[in-house]
């Protein structure tokens, strides 16, 4: 019998290439640490559309509900740009998030010392940066109803005659559960949470602020909590990102702010993410892990992609799904060692040089370092 | 008879201090260039609340509708943090924007050479930066209905029992008019527009993209147009902001992205903004000018505030409301000269030193330089 079941969804673009390197890492832990993984693989995004005519087949969705963890590569590509909204590769990913109810999206933005010079920010601003953005992932304007594009022909003042609508909708319960996740995580880190919204212009932001405060006062009074408007948050991330420990925010603000935070580190190819839901019968949370980077169609299939973000996503799976904290630490250290040794995929190659390697060689180096 | 009518709303915090310096500049143009300004002054924000019990009196609103241009300092302060949503200082500003129908908010993010080292970004990334964000300002989630916080007691799954709602709503006409403003401005600059939305997850973003494209194809085919998802936009602003010329985006994305862009320059105390609406009978657009910075209650009343953002907002008024392009250029050059001479308010004082001056001395230096 296996200990851990994993569904691998390589997806599009560089997804399959980087996932092949994760396979090596999984193999290493099977052979050398006696972990038993039951790994299955399936399609998502454009790859699923090509085969099934939709970006996530129902059988794939059902499988995802049964495994301990889903590992996803990336979705999307120019080939699919003109598909109908409901068929776009992104919808496959959004369906997974929604139906697995993965409400807490953990996006660490960490600056690796060996790579600090890649940042467009000054070294003294980003060196040692280690923040964690906890983004609500199953609600808000991404999923709220009503939504759509409608005719507005009876309105003579509306040149063009159409109207586009989306709804930002949050329940207090949705806010509380992601706030709890953020506070729990903060307790294991710097013990500080900053919550971001636009309570000065949006009522949903007022509710957000009040409910986060409620969870704090009733359940986590010892964690330091502050509130910040999201526009100021964007500014502060650029000005002095190290003032933050954990940031908790909604789906849309989280999308934008976590991307800005990721770019501060200068090495997008390094950043993993975890999306967690409620505990299943076996006590493990529903979980999906994916790199923050996209499908990078421009370099797909050329052995240029950096597999580290995907490998570190697997490290997050070891930690959050399988409770193998030691193994996760070891894997993260192996990555750091390889970087300190100057091993570099193309995206990490800077003026100071290093040993250029392909996607596959990077995977080999990391398993060797383990 | 006066040539130009101006309503000055100093507002809260450092607003009155910085506005006093603008008054000097206005005086200079009256005396030395024979421009005749009819200047009146009134209250907005917390100052208006203190007197009238609301953040903008109806008479002030009526005056704002009649003048050629409104010049606003800043609103808000901790004293007003616990006021009801509808009474908060911000509502005064939002009412002005909405009732004057100021749909195009121009936010230049310019990096002044003398100040490039203030940026948290590397000099080679930001030196010479000159982008213009055109933010839609009268619609979207800021104003869409339905909105509010409601009881949701019949939903046993909703711990807390409340729900917060806001609506993102854009008509094609609203999108087209701000797109036109962006294309017109681009023609006078780098001839390039990048439009940002989340068309991959929001239908209102799809409409946004289609309508901007329509205006381009039908009216501005010679301006270069690109589209970008707003999360990627946030990343690209951090990674390589000089790739942009004009960015056009909606009210909420514009709020966040323009603040991130402002912070790239490292000198928030320098950045002006203009909010423009449709032409009035005299051919001038409805207009409100304000610095990008806030009311900075922590330093209010101490003579520490930098008046340059507010003075440059007046320069924008000269250019966009009064068609005094030459005067605007002269004023901007005077500011550059004073900076090049090393004159510095506290916020601009860096390691390389300079001549420290108060708010009022900075105003004097700029009028002298004129
Ligand atoms: C691909 C897209 C739907 C997605 C999002 O907007 O959430 C992506 O930007 C992300 O952040 O994971
Ligand atoms: C003060 C606030 C209502 C305002 C906004 O959100 O638009 C401010 O952040 C701005 O950008 O002018």
TrEMBL record, chains A, B:
One annotated GO biological process: L-leucine biosynthetic process
Chain ranges of the Isopropylmalate dehydrogenase-like domain: 5-366
Region (Disordered): 346-370
Leader peptide range in chain numbering: none
Residues that, per the record, bind substrate: 97, 107, 135, 231
GO cellular component: cytosol
Pathway: Amino-acid biosynthesis; L-leucine biosynthesis; L-leucine from 3-methyl-2-oxobutanoate: step 3/4
Domain of life (superkingdom): Bacteria
Molecular function GO labels: 3-isopropylmalate dehydrogenase activity; magnesium ion binding; NAD binding
Predominant place of localization: cytoplasm
Residues noted as binding Mg(2+) in the record, renumbered to the chain: 231, 255, 259
Cofactor note: Binds 1 Mg(2+) or Mn(2+) ion per subunit.
Pfam families in the cross-refs: Iso_dh
InterPro entries: IsoCit/isopropylmalate_DH_CS (IPR019818), IsoPropMal-DH-like_dom (IPR024084), Isopropylmalate_DH (IPR004429)
Binding sites annotated in the UniProt record for NAD(+): 77-90, 294-306
Cofactors named for this entry: Mg(2+); Mn(2+)
Key word Amino-acid biosynthesis present: yes
UniProt-annotated site: Important for catalysis, residues: 142, 198
Key words, A-Z: Amino-acid biosynthesis, Branched-chain amino acid biosynthesis, Cytoplasm, Leucine biosynthesis, Magnesium, Manganese, Metal-binding, NAD, Oxidoreductase
Subcellular location: Cytoplasm
Catalytic activity: (2R,3S)-3-isopropylmalate + NAD(+) = 4-methyl-2-oxopentanoate + CO2 + NADH
Function: Catalyzes the oxidation of 3-carboxy-2-hydroxy-4-methylpentanoate (3-isopropylmalate) to 3-carboxy-4-methyl-2-oxopentanoate. The product decarboxylates to 4-methyl-2 oxopentanoate.
PANTHER family hit by this protein: 3-ISOPROPYLMALATE DEHYDROGENASE (PTHR42979)
NCBIfam families per UniProt: leuB
Record text on subunit structure and interactions: Homodimer.
Name used for this protein in its record: 3-isopropylmalate dehydrogenase
Species in which this protein is naturally found: Paracoccus aurantiacus
